[in-house]
Amino acid sequence: MARLHLVILTPRSKTFEGDVDVLNVPTKTGQIGILADHYPLIATIPTGIFHYVIDNVTTLYAISGGVVSVQKEKTILLAEAMERPEEIDIIRAREAKARAESLLASKSPDIDIERAQAALMRAINRIRVYENYR
User: pTM (2 decimals)?
Assistant: First the structure.
């Protein structure tokens, strides 16, 4: 089986580079699977879950936005932030969720609603990944 060359970058580092059997990423239009020889594309990645598989071993991450670029020679995933289930600080994630819910419930005109909703979605995603995949 042909493999896909994957490079994962975050603002802090190159997190991964290697050949994978399949990459599965969330996009604005739904989850997509990417194999070797996939057609070229660029897609935005919302907050969600992505994973890649190498030799039947799945590596899963919570991702907080990014972009994926599929090219003939390699696929590049640029992530704003991402964490493996075992890296997630569940206490911090639950506190972030409570803060965001409290801000949204206050209905104060001083609150950036879009920012608070994004923080809530990130916290919920991190909690879901921690609880379901660690």
Answer: 0.87
